[in-house]
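In practice, a research group might receive sequence data for several interacting partners and want a quick structural hypothesis before committing to experiments. The following worked case mirrors that situation: the sequences arrive first, and a predicted assembly follows.
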Amino acid sequence: MGEKESIVRVFRFDPMRDEKPRYETFRVPFREGDRVLDLLIYIQENLDPSLAFRQSCKEQACLVCYLKANGRLILPCRERAEDNMTLEPRDRHRIVRDLVVGFK
Amino acid sequence: MSGILRWADDVVAVDVLVIGSGGAGAEAAIGADETGATVLVVDRGVNTRSGATVTAGHTCCAALGPGDSPELHFEDTVRGGHFMANQRLVETYVEEAPKRVVELDEWGAKFIKKDGEFQLIESPGGHSKSRAVHVGFLTGPAIMAALRRELNRRKIEKMNDILITNLLTNENCVVGATGLNLLNGNFIVFRAKATVLATGGAGQVYDWTTMALECTGDGYSLAYRAGAELVDMEFVQFLLMQTDPRLMHLNCAVGLVLIPRWRRRIRESGVRLINALGEDFIRRYDPKRAIYTTRDQTAIAVQTEMNEDRGPIYFDLTPVPREVLEEEFGDTPGSWLPDIQREGYDLGKDPIEVTLAAHHFMGGVRINERGETGVRGLYAAGEVAGGIHGSNRLGGNALTEIAVFGRIAGVNAARHALSSDPIGVREKQVRTERERVYRYIDEAPKKGESPTAVRKRLQKLMSSKVGVIRDGEGLKEAVKEILGLREYLPKVSLRSDARSYNSEWIEALLLPRMLDVAEMVARAALLRAESRGAHYRADYPATDNKNWLKNIVLKHVEGEMRLTTRPVVVTKIAPEG
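A structural hypothesis for the assembly, expressed as tokens:
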């Protein structure tokens, strides 16, 4: 990682503990070509291991990682990281924690 | 027995429990259901979306074409695996493969057809006939979509986000499993008269892998700890994979899609692998086949170049005219060309940097042709099972094989369940397991090394000393270091005590099983003092049929990993000379 920096605002909510959701901001270094998923992995491994998000194949096949970036539904394994991002769970799914939603 | 409710938040009882919902797990569930058993599929992630099958790029082999036969498919598979495969399993595989392929097509996989017949293409690495059905580069997703529909049609019960923490045993039988519901931290006891492991491979023990996140070798460790035998664990297949962040999201490793033997025009236009000096090095290793050599030979050549400081290695498509690429791949389902173009990557100017990534575990839980493991009540199918591919798997043999043995394991698990009386669960085992699982978040220190850091150390160690090129000294050090990493387990720290979807908790629970797998691969690789297929020993570079035409079997005995050798099961053909 290196070269550039992204200001990432992330939706945080643990329904088992928190009264209401909040947003937390991280400054995340990234390389040209990195994906949104790389930002999330960086946060979890280096800044806040308690961040919850889904990932599996990292190559647009499993489709479990869908979330909203700047209001738009995206696949974080496919979408490029940008300088400013607000990441939220996808709509119409129950929130398990942070960016993780339940699947039927 | 009645006391288990003190330790479990929930108890679920079924005839057949299937762990894992990729191709093998889905087929097992269908097999158990059609046999009349009640069945539940649990998955660590989301059902039918996690694991390797959904990422499988391309080809699915069966003897379906004119002039082809199960006998020829058998011979190719046994030779391709350098005579290490259990030939009884291979016989079952090649006989059943056509049925599974036709059925998957009927269920909606929609393999590409020409004039009403399957379009059969060449699959890489040693098939003597064109015998692969496909849906472009979306074959795995198409197969999983078909299986998902069939599971839904049968209303087969499933649970997502269940991490199986251990198998439950009683009277030398597997009687179910304990699981952690990752969404809320609840501890669940699954009582089952038969359990099918369909948990896939363990690519995640290496630092580069083509496999999905769930492929941490869960089933190898679960089976081992329940007393089952494992076989051929030294054989791990590596494949070329792109490293450029702009290309990491392509739906396949380049090693899979960019070396299409059947694309004559691309071959003829001079596609090549080059090292940092620009040398077409692979001709030094295999002058005749060059870039079209087998996967095991490619891996050894690439690793040698990297070890001797002639890396990085590039896959060079620059000689291939753009219009040839467009014409050959433009309309292929799942083609990676649009993605590459979207990234502004110019294949005409920039060779693609590649490395070697763990792609397939040929070894696994030792099974017979009924999918039985030798431990009553425990079955295994798919990549978690070993013995079908010998020391090197041919391209296109995995997707069909997991369907064949998944189905067989499910049917036999159901038959066993329907003809057996239930056996109770030992309260003490449930209690011990619950305490082990919760100790991580209730008692783990808040400061110290994170499970992620320990996992990364293991991955680095495995890639450097138990990767493509191995030697006795390095393997001895690796075993020692793996045992050393075990000492860290009680000391790993969790910074969050969240009960729901706590990634560090999950990592901490996975670490002991990843260490089990690492130790299996390292010890088996150390014992096999020869080179064969995907197992290459720099200190024993030749294949030694005189001493090593046998399988290495691993078993947990009195707290130790015991290794023995057995003669290979040969039913039809033996190596010449």
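Before designing any experiment, note the following. The first helix of chain B runs from residue 23 to 34. The radius of gyration of chain B is 23 Å.
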